[in-house]
Queue: 2 jobs
Job 1
Amino acid sequence: MGLPDASGDLSSEMEVDAFRRLFPLRFYERHLAESIRPDGRPLGRARDTTIALGAVTSADGSALAKIGSTTMLAAVKMEVMTPSMESPDEGCIAIDFHMPPICSPIVRPGRPAEAAPVVSKQLSDTISSGKAAWMAYLDIYCLDADGALFDAALLSAVAALFHLQIPAVSLNDDGKIVVSEEDGGKLEKEPVNKEKRKLTLRSIPFSLTCILHKNYILADPTSEEEAIMETLVTVVLDSSSQLISLYKPGGAVLAYTSAVQDCIALTRQRVRELQKILDEANSGMEVD
Amino acid sequence: MEYVNPEGLRLDGRRPMEMRQIRAEIGAVAKADGSAVFEMGNTKVIAAVYGPREVQNRSQQISDKALVRCEYSMANFSTGDRMRKPKGDRRSTEISLVIRQTMEACIMTHLMPRSQIDIFVQVLQADGGTRSACINAATLALADAGIPLRDLVTSCSAGYLNSTPLLDLNYVEDSAGGPDVTVGFLPKLDKVTLLQMDSKLSIDLFENVMQLAIEGCKAVANYIREILLENTKQLEYRRGL
């Protein structure tokens, strides 16, 4: 690939790969000047996204979400618990985000990744509790970390909750709730809820992470882009286009409100795409 | 409880000498040097290999061999009841050690001195035989990473219930309290690297059960070989050969 010789330095004689490693910022800026990124995407486009519901059969609800190479597996397990005094009608949800060492060469065993507790906290703030006195444990495992971790994690969490079917339970003689057997035979006790029911979700949050660099806005960064240009903005909107959360943790670039509004506009578009993908995945499941 | 009914069928409808269905896929984790997903029935395991790379802890560096590290962990949702402590508990530490020693025996570590090879195995769904699935997945991941191996290591388990030797136990059969023999086998060299058994079994029966497990290992080895050949063909097509 012939690089335009801007300053008569080493860059014109080097191979593309070496240039990418040694001068990553200049490599990217050359691309941004043409409004394109090294993987061929225009600046506002996100990577190909897929959702697969029901990836883990032993869990009550599960989903595998992939944005480009970033892969997240989320699973929900329900347990019965006694509700607290202040809110006897509410259950609760515990969200745990794990980054096992398989996902990335920079995660060392025995030391959790720096990103993991941050993403955990962001997810807890975004997702609200369900109904009845159930305890839902939502575990999200990152299987491949290639940028935009929060987006993929939120998408897989939402898809897993979408897929969740609360198991049928009945009250046994000791006054305890037990999960009914599914053998189709006679049930001695009257089940409390007759069949498995799906969770009713009020509104579904979707998110998009953007990188700000000088006056460019790049949507859905890969890990290489995140490492070079550090200013991230994450916008979470729900399906009725209301703003749920906006997160900009510092960074070298100071954003004017116009930049933030551009990010929100990109997110709105992304929400429509994600909503469609989630609906397709869901209807794909029901056909079986 | 009856694990083998009078017609000779087990709880999941298999015959005593029948393995569960195996499925493997190479290259699941894009960021890793080598990775593989391995399924044996409902047990699903993902393995990733990083290496050979620079040793992270200088004091552990070995001057004439590569350092092999292994970590086994189970996802919180992998078993029937949610697990509280998925790694760092005694079972995970023991299995990590077992997998490390098994793989170390077949990696040609003397070719990569002063470097480190990391094998990470994550159990996504557990239904008995996780140890074997992890070893099989690790072998595929090492082959995908291009690390020189003396031979493939394949593993399978066998047990003895209701006076019948059974191949490839699932969780229900494993928790029945009968013996469980896990074998790690090198098919080309025809050698056993891993042999573990719990519970009690008489010597002559043990011979039978171990042979059964070795037959299972050979079947897994054939499948793994097919998968690797298929993968190589794909790589050739992509390079235009």
Job 2
Amino acid sequence: MSGDEMNPAAVAQAVEDIQGDDRWMAQIWRELFSPLHALNFGIGGDTTCNVLWRLQNGELDNIGPKVTVVWVGTNNHEHSAEQVAGGILAIAQLLTSRLPKTKVVVLGLLARGEWPNPLREKNVAVNSFLRSWLPRLGQTQFLDVGAGFVHSDGTISTRDMFDFLHLTAAGYRAIAKPLIDLLRQILEETPEEKRASLL
Amino acid sequence: MHHIANASLTDKVMSSGDSNPAATPTPCVDIQGDGRWMSLHNHFVSNSKDKEPDVLFVGDSLVQLLHQFEVWRELFSPLHALNFGVGGDETQHVLWRLSNGELAHISPKVVVLWVGTHNHGHTAEQICGGIMAIVQLIKDKLPKAYTLVLGVLPRGKMPNPLRERNAQVNKLVKEAVSSLPHASLLNVDPGFVHSDGSISHQDLYDFLHLTPQGYQAVCQPLHAHLKGLLEKQAEN
């Protein structure tokens, strides 16, 4: 009506980000790992023994990844920390022997349970063994992604692990950062000739 | 397991106490050593003290994981829903949790109950008895609430005995609630089993748990049904 009224069609307005930054679980893989051409062979509840069996029985037959990320051990309830670390070492050895060109990244076991408990101590011990053993194995490195999950009062928050064991979307985002940085670094180090021969 | 050869349907489904382990409130024993089950239960009890949910979801991993996907925020947060799902829970665990504080501080209008698939070693009759014991408990503690029992989904890549057991559970529960004004069974399986008998990992990534696509297929009709129930509750 009057000249004072703005024409809504002429008011600059950014598109509303309805999804928001609080991305949910399924998007993290798609957003952060799919672009790296990643495959996921994880199975809930697996122990080092189960993973070893799967890798020995076909899962490595048809692929030649430049990097293999190993994350296993928290479910090995029947085994001591030393045995668990030994199982992880065996997996790393199997990978480097079956896939000579792959670099292996072993992720440290996370803390678990709402309060301090024996399984947290066990997982810390496993990580400690891995830190000293893995460097002796060529092409293999250890990455601890667990920093920050245990608060100063000793608790873990359901914001990071919804059941004090499994990561929420926020928890996954936190561990993805150091992991992606390392993966990018390793992938960039792989020379072109090597890349071509892996196809 | 002893079989009650000539028991009537009512006896089978309403059995409770020591005769049916699936209907005997039982906490989870901490065999792993980090006390997570009790931590979660305590969290549910204390978190409910300042919440006023209209809808309570309670059950096993299928309920718990629902909370981690975008579909929760999209469809159920707007309905003021709380999630008391715990992975691995069987009927007797849910029964214990609800008997020990999880319903003490809230008065939801609708309780969505989804449990039974993890009751390994129990017969379909026992599992139905467990589910009906939970329905009865909710009626006792929340006289005005409506309980919506979700049908147990098929599982496994190809046909197997657990699929038959779950289908039988749904059949028995449907019959048992048919006479109750405060409860019903909703079949939320959109047709996960294909004509060749297989289930796709696109719907159930490990042939048990739902992918985001699987959750969408289950939750859209569930959401519509819930809205209808809430509107009816408001009218009463």
